[in-house]
Amino acid sequence: MKEEIVSKVLEGDSRAIARMITLVENHSKEASSLMKEIHRYTGSAHIIGVTGVMGSGKSTLIAELTRLYRKNGKKVGIIAIDPTSPFSGGALLGDRVRMTELILDKEVFIRSMGTRGMLGGLAGAVYDVVEILDASGKDVILVETVGVGQAEVDIIKIADTTVVVIVPGLGDSVQTMKAGVMEIADIYVVNKADHPGIDQTVMEIENLVELSSNPNTPIIKTIAKTGEGVSDLLEAISQHQKYLETEGELEEKRKIRYEAELIEIIRNHLLDMIYDESIVKQRIDTIVDRILSKETDPYTAAEEILGRILK
Amino acid sequence: MKEEIVSKVLEGDSRAIARMITLVENHSKEASSLMKEIHRYTGSAHIIGVTGVMGSGKSTLIAELTRLYRKNGKKVGIIAIDPTSPFSGGALLGDRVRMTELILDKEVFIRSMGTRGMLGGLAGAVYDVVEILDASGKDVILVETVGVGQAEVDIIKIADTTVVVIVPGLGDSVQTMKAGVMEIADIYVVNKADHPGIDQTVMEIENLVELSSNPNTPIIKTIAKTGEGVSDLLEAISQHQKYLETEGELEEKRKIRYEAELIEIIRNHLLDMIYDESIVKQRIDTIVDRILSKETDPYTAAEEILGRILK
Q1: Residue A54 with chain B: CB contacts under 8 Å
Q2: Domain-by-domain residue ranges, chain B?
Q3: For each of chain A's 311 residues, which pLDDT tens digit applies?
Q4: Most A CBs within 10 Å: which of B23, B126, B270, as the mutation test of the A interface?
Q5: Nearest residue to A257 via CA among A131, A164, A144, A151
């Protein structure tokens, strides 16, 4: 059965991909042996992170990008980490129509991932899904995240190319960039380029880019709804990919991803152990009761638990 | 020296508080023994999470809330986890003036925390800062976070009372709530109540609240800039606090926090170990090179590392 799933995943069978992802997300017993099997088949997909605040139109942009990639014969994987993304079912009617074409395409695999209630954090599962889609023969994997915060910082560790989507008029956008997103962008997209305020937004970004550590970062204007400018974006992504390959930067990016992935796997495994009663001997809730009653404190309790599991 | 810091923190000395936070953030050697010392003095502060998208005016709301608490003689701690918060120095001039009063007040302690480059994630450090401010005698601790995502989900684990700030006209807000923030709110605030669209926004939230697992969640209208409605919010917070205390829910909330804190401490400690060469014997980057060359895979490598550190 294990061999069957793996060989079907390698063939790009969508049902097998979905099944393997579910096994991995559920921390099933087979998951890690399946993941071990597929690693040798990975490494050829280009991983593109797309980040931006809600309402910036990044889902529509991803849909249009996917359409273009498909025209060029590329196979596409989409991972939506935005809970309000149309890919996550939070779509308005217009978006749903737009997405239907992609959903019906066998060479497009779409997976939405929630951020709630994931014991080991989101990142671990995303690394796994990226590896699975890569092994399944997808040429391009688009990872969509929302807003500012840890997820946006983590995306650089997963993506080869990071696209930051800005919309004119949201004065916050530029402030956000200053605060942290600034340094992660390989490409800026100013979407909704038909809206007023476009010129000022582009100018603000140009000024920030000039002062940044990478003053050559391209700024692309798009109108995702009509598809305008999306081919320029595709071109910029492919230029960045070439740059990564010729400068040996791709290897660096991949090393960062593998290190982050390795650490995530270790953390999740250790977390499982801590919750495993037979190992920790005392139920976590009993320990928490002792912290609450001030009989012990979180740091002392942590040392006790560590003492039981570590060499 | 250790006794001196602890006793000064317990007296509420702002410089000692700041120094202890820095020691803890830097993972210094003394940090855990200092944290062990203060745990017994914690538990009396009321911890209030305030979350909402950028531009929702939550910093102004926090400033106004703090002003009211100070009028009532309460000591206040503010932890800003939003990188674009005026408390983090990302302020416009108007905000800065508003904040100055608070900054000059010795009984108000403000700390801004970044989300970038924190090895162990943000949450661990926030738990520590909450414990320190609690031990220092603050009656109220306000924790500010932005947007949707993991940080917003985590805030329920830290806060006794979670306030979700919405603004009219941002159509996204209600969609966001549906997607996840919905279930975390103990109180809704519709801020900028002088803006058009206020009635519709309130109605949308009322509809969602009615269908939720907690149909009695209060919805408060405020105009943070003028202070209007902020005393209603304070009243709603204090009602919620009373409810928690009489229903035994406060203990439940604290247990959730201590468990999350315990797990964070354990995870961070283990992470430090993994990066400690003398324990893992082989440098992480050598292992990553082997993953890159497909000589091994992340799951097998993780098992090898775990085998070396675990009993």
Answers
A1: 53, 148, 172, 175-176
A2: 43-248, 275-309
A3: 778 999 999 999 999 999 999 998 887 888 889 999 999 999 999 999 998 877 788 889 999 999 999 999 999 999 987 655 666 555 445 566 667 778 789 999 998 876 543 434 556 788 899 999 999 999 999 998 875 555 555 666 789 999 988 888 655 555 555 545 566 789 999 999 998 888 888 888 888 888 777 888 999 999 998 999 999 999 999 999 999 999 889 999 999 889 888 888 887 787 777 777 666 656 788 889 999 999 999 999 998 888 888 87
A4: B270
A5: A131
Q: Hey, are the CB atoms on B180 and A83 less than 8 Å from each other?
A: yes
Measuring CA to CA, which residue among A201, A55, A77, A244 is closest to residue B170? A55
Asked whether B31 and B129 are in contact (CB, 8 A), the reply is no
Query: Residues B192, B55: contact at Cβ < 8 Å?
Result: no
CB count, 10 Å around CB of B210? 10
Chain B closest-CA separation from residue A99 CA (Å): 18
Burial class (CB in 10 A: 0-12, 13-18, 19+), B100: exposed
The two structure tokens encoding residue B204:
């949308």
Is the domain spanning A43-251 CATH 2.80.10.50? The answer is no
Give the start-end residues of each E strand in B127-246. Answer: 140-146, 161-166, 187-190, 219-221
Closest approach of A149 to chain B, Cα-based (Å): 7
Domain B43-248 top-level CATH class: alpha beta
Q: Where are the beta strands (DSSP E) in A4-137?
A: 46-52, 76-80, 108-112
The count of other CB atoms within 10 Å of the CB of residue B165 is: 28
Q: Which helix (H) or strand (E) holds B16?
A: helix B14-25
Structural contact between residues B189 and B157, judged by C-beta atoms closer than 8 angstroms:
no
Q: Is there a contact between B95 and B230 (Cβ–Cβ < 8 Å)?
A: no
